[in-house]
Design goal:
Helix content: 40-55%
Number of strands: 2
Mean pLDDT: 90
Shape: flat
Protein name: NinB protein
Number of helices: 5
InterPro entries: NinB_sf
Order of helices and strands: HHHEEHH
Structural class: mainly alpha
Distance between the termini: 42 Å
Low-confidence stretches: none
Strand order of the largest sheet: 1-2
Length: 148
């Protein structure tokens, strides 16, 4: 089931959906937490720009083409987001399986994504990588607001 944004404007449809679920005879886990928007397209674009910056500069340092964007992304997610346990039903056996996978940035909210970007920026600075930050991106605007 997808996330539902509970608001006074949709309380009746949420109640109807919950009623239908209860009548299905299954049990459900409901978690209520404050709604936060998922990471933005702008944040995602900036992270991919940085993966490319790091891969390019890493390759220049070693004089080889060893680093690519996908591996840089994987390594940074491993370092700064970590893993999560996910469940799925095995199509062959029908058994419930639990596996570890890298966390996905698409599942982060805007605040968590901002923290992830800050961690990458700090690591890059400490390790001599120069990252581009466009003047018109959300990340730059938030940085500028902090200085004021």
């Amino acid at each position: 089931m997808e996330d539902i944004c509970l608001h006074e404007s949709n309380i009746k449809s949420v109640f109807k959906t919950l009623s239908e679920l209860v009548l299905s005879g299954k049990r459900y886990r409901i978690i209520i937490k404050v709604w936060k928007d998922k990471r933005s397209i702008d944040q995602n674009s900036l992270s991919h720009m940085w993966y490319a910056d790091i891969a390019k500069q890493g390759n220049e340092r070693i004089g080889k083409n060893e680093f690519d964007i996908d591996n840089v992304k994987k390594d940074l997610k491993k370092a700064f987001l970590g893993y999560e346990v996910v469940s799925y039903t095995d199509v062959v056996t029908g058994e419930e399986r639990r596996v570890k996978r890298l966390k996905k940035t698409s599942e982060l909210d805007t605040g968590d994504m901002h923290i992830y970007l800050q961690r990458i920026e700090t690591w890059a600075y400490q390790n001599g990588f120069e990252l581009r930050i466009p003047n018109d991106c959300e990340y730059r605007k938030l940085q500028d607001e902090q200085v004021k």
